[in-house]
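RETRY 2/3 - previous attempt timed out on the joint model. Re-submitting the same 576-residue input unchanged.
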Amino acid sequence: MTYVEILAGGKGTRMGNTEMPKQFLGLGTKPIFIHTIEQFLLLKEVDKIILCCSKEWISHAEDVIEKYIANKENVFVVEGGKDRNETIMNGCRYIEKHFGLNDEDIIVTHDAVRPFITQRIILENIEAAKKYGAVDTVIPATDTIIESKDAKIISNVPLRSQMYQGQTPQSFKIKDLMEIYISLTEEEKKILTDACKMFVIKGKNVHIVEGEVYNIKITTLYDLKIANAILKERENK
Amino acid sequence: MINQSYRLVAPKQIRTEFIDEEITADCLFIRPTYLSICAADQRYYTGSRGKEVMDKKLPMALIHEAVGTVLYDPSGEYEKGCNVVMIPNTPHEYSSVIKENYLTSSRFRASGMDGFMQSVVKIKKNRVLPFYKASPNIAVLLELLSVAMNALEHFDKYSHLQKQIIGVWGDGNVGFVTSLVLKKTFPNAEIVVFGTTEQKLNYFSFADQTYLVNHIPPDLRVDHAFECVGGSGSEKAINQIIDYINPMGSIALMGVSENNVAINTRMVLEKGLTLLGNSRSGLEDFERSIAFIEENEDVRNYLHSIISEEVTVRSIADMHKAFENDLRNEFKTVMKWEI
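RETRY 2/3 succeeded.
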């Protein structure tokens, strides 16, 4: 089975004065996370979609899904965790509990606030996750990346041609992902802001799928303005 | 959902545009799998349509020849993954007299509305037909075939019954499928193809005879003719047809020309000829085309022979590669759509 987990746990603290978490704000004619879910819903390769959000927004998310999505029988809203990886794990635990787990089951995890995801990126994630077990979506870095350990002095300037920027989806064989997470110490969990990093620090290969520059994460009001500016209505010309 | 439309914004410039698509019950959502490039697309791509037309029509996604798989049917009639051909003509009214592709109110994909170069195509349900036997990389030529079917129907309706020799002028894609459809429809007729390139004429193995246009036997005559040349060659081709056609024959015109064409009307009158205009196709032509390729394995094989190149498209750079290569390819360039 191929599961999709949409990560919508963000609290929207970086969105200025808006009251709602960013994923629930409108983009064009509907909320951002609905655009994201719809892109996955179209694919026959996807069996079930789990939307993970914070407890207090679950009812709201369910109402909005009810309003916008007609074929919602395979969309489930689940409570997220205290951080990104705990949220991913909650989704995995939900799958294990309600649908059971097989060795070949994969999960495609994706930020709710990246609605410009394409069919190609999703399909390549599914294919690569089935084949390699762990996949990240990246684009080559265009800016030079600077490392500074004290935020004052540059400690390193890595070779740009070897640098990439991580996007989502990140996709995994669910059993592998859960096993690795369980094996982490609390200290390790604290420094892991990214699911792929779990595999890397445990010496496992994570394969790369090419993202798109426009697969942006809508994090700030500025991002939302840009997203609304590039989104057009279908003219009847 | 947010759709990506890969629109031509200026000659040789394609840009990703994001469209907020509404999901409505009367529409299907199709993921294109194969798209093929037509000369009409090239005229936009290279900018040869002229500034006025370009300014009016762009930005616009190109391509009106495409097949795909059903991603989502709100009504549940089509199964996900079903192979379908998409019909580019989009009628807005019904007439019992005028075919849908000639109604002035009809819209056409990649000519005033977005073509099929999109991540997902939202399309009215009655503009889609399923196919089963043909593989999608061959079925992508269904639109081209449907254009020949449209012309054939017109010809059959208005031409006289003596059809011993039918001439087809043009050794390109339209000439190929038209002569193929003619050979299958009138097996007893002699199908003679006239072209300018020996190498291309060699592909027309099913034709009874092929000639280079400057080596036609002087006493050869055809009962009817199809002009599949278009462009700057239209004038020479039509006038040559008028010279070689028997009295009261019909000439089916299929080639598009940007300029007016001067033809020998004196001989048109003297021979009592009928000139039949043909353009595009409609639903019924697609239905006949699907039956044609599903029933005839040899037709599928012949069609395969005119796919000069298949380009896998995963980026805008790949789209440019397909259009640039197409200018050099002898026959069709097909894009395997993986973007």
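Chain A has one domain: 2-138+166-230. Closing ticket.
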